[in-house]
């Protein structure tokens, strides 16, 4: 049977649209230029190789690398060895039996390198090293959005024409999620001396760019959003099985809070393996957005972030929310704030994070496992309304991962009598009272 061309075209477009949902593309609409760039600068030649400075730049606005930190790996193209490292170390030495004396630091064809811990002796430290692999996000803390180390490579060639860049670069931060492109020759990096009177430059520079995909990082989401409002008694919970279902291997271990301390003490699991409180959503993190109050010229929202993971303290956490009224944010309580402006002049995206030494660590599940803040917005008469879910966020990210939102048709609805007011709860009560009088 012949199929009309128009139907065939619709079918092809349908297949292409489906493919978009399973792609592992790392493009993020709220951070279109975000990536981690690894810069490999050769600064001097040695008898059988070179000395290089390797720098990891986190150019992601709101995604950071938390404990236990980054792991950088690659494959040598020739028979290179690592003679020495400052500011980092290889996790394995490998087989160095062919060397009679002065054994190299690492002889593996595929070395894996990690950052050193705080408190490392000064003779082993390097600029921007020794933080246990933790790298903060660019918008949150640009001064600590970088990590670097020095490496001495042997058996590699001693000129620009004979040396070869490492290939198959991998970055775990600390788990999977990043895909790194091949090394590219770029203009040599220029350095400014400590007295700021002279510039030097690398002999040769390679760049490797790594991008993040939430689909590669894990099979299930890591956070969800619940909603409520003063004008409706309905509390919209996180969708059921947002991050997996109970008794599912995808969701991790689920325990009752009363026995969590016993299980945690005997499980021997590390921070990368969640030990979750049993919930209907099974997410490590829940973000609750509550439309709290409406005034004549302002309206107030309360945001609460709750940790349901008994195995994880989230240090340097951050939250990204998209809402059209962020261009009229007037006051913020107990959180830091920065507009992201991913769409040039449109200010509808905000990054929120904790205040240092106060609430910048989201404690593991339990009585202290939450942080909260209130946001005060000024009303724009031409745009403001409580109707049709306008007061709720369009999307929310936690630590760079997109959170599962409830379906729009379940949002707390505004009573019909007040749909065109959107002003104050007093008006809602007044209209309800008048309606009762009329019916009497």
TrEMBL record:
<protein>
    <recommendedName>
        <fullName>COBRA-like protein</fullName>
    </recommendedName>
</protein>
<dbReference type="Pfam" id="PF25079">
    <property type="entry name" value="COB_C"/>
</dbReference>
<feature type="transmembrane region" description="Helical">
    <location>
        <begin position="421"/>
        <end position="439"/>
    </location>
</feature>
<keyword id="KW-0732">Signal</keyword>
<feature type="signal peptide">
    <location>
        <begin position="1"/>
        <end position="24"/>
    </location>
</feature>
<dbReference type="GO" id="GO:0052324">
    <property type="term" value="P:plant-type cell wall cellulose biosynthetic process"/>
</dbReference>
<keyword id="KW-0812">Transmembrane</keyword>
<comment type="similarity">
    <text>Belongs to the COBRA family.</text>
</comment>
<feature type="domain" description="COBRA C-terminal">
    <location>
        <begin position="222"/>
        <end position="411"/>
    </location>
</feature>
<dbReference type="GO" id="GO:0098552">
    <property type="term" value="C:side of membrane"/>
</dbReference>
<keyword id="KW-0449">Lipoprotein</keyword>
<keyword id="KW-0472">Membrane</keyword>
<keyword id="KW-0336">GPI-anchor</keyword>
<dbReference type="GO" id="GO:0005886">
    <property type="term" value="C:plasma membrane"/>
</dbReference>
<keyword id="KW-1133">Transmembrane helix</keyword>
<dbReference type="InterPro" id="IPR056900">
    <property type="entry name" value="COB_C"/>
</dbReference>
<keyword id="KW-0325">Glycoprotein</keyword>
<dbReference type="Pfam" id="PF04833">
    <property type="entry name" value="COBRA"/>
</dbReference>
<dbReference type="InterPro" id="IPR006918">
    <property type="entry name" value="COBRA_pln"/>
</dbReference>
<dbReference type="GO" id="GO:0010215">
    <property type="term" value="P:cellulose microfibril organization"/>
</dbReference>
